[in-house]
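Job type: complex structure
Entries:
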Amino acid sequence: MRAATPFDEGSEDTHRLQAIRRLEVEIAGCRRCPLAVGRIHAVPGEGNLNALVMFVGEGPGADEDRQGRPFVGRSGQFLNETLARLGIARTDVYITNVVKCRPPDNRDPLPDELAACDDYLARQIEIINPRIIVTLGRISMRRWFPEGGITQLHGRVRNIGRGRIAMAMFHPAAALRNPQWRSAFEQDMARLPALIERAARANEAAARGEALPAGVPHPGDAD
Ligand code: URA
């Protein structure tokens, strides 16, 4: 199963690639909040431009700060393995965080830091146009599921408009710490292949200009 549509050279995809590269350069030089002071690298995110799924974590840790890439430490390894077991290649998805610079000592990002960075995530979503956004952990969950704790809300799927759904999941680092959260994380992730299939079918139908069955988010839906 492909979790991304193929790159189309010489079309709109080339413009989107340029847009994402410009955004990465902007993030690399960002000084909007004090997290810029302590970073080695800003970590914009990486992945497939035509990904159907975007994972949104919390913020870079020490490994990510050193390498400038998201989810490359222990929790990233676990995320990659979990995806691979489900037949999803990491290179077919897009991975980013709600804040692009490492908070000191891996503390939670502060409200001002989240606010300063939010427009980068909004622009990434606009450019990549994923059908499915998976939030990893309680911090990114709150952007789309502000109403409760992660133990209640993980596994919840919500139509967030513009043909997108958001799904809340535990953070892989939390899953590695606690066997109960790990099994919840693995069960939630196991639902992704079916959601990806449905998203791919919805995109194909939309490309043919066909109406979609009720309840399936359509790329043209209003927010
Ligand atoms: N944890 C996160 O939330 N994001 C990363 O990129 C790495 C670890």
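Summary: The longest helix spans residues 111-128. Residues 57-61, 64, 70-71, 73, 75-76, 97 surround uracil (CB under 6 Å).
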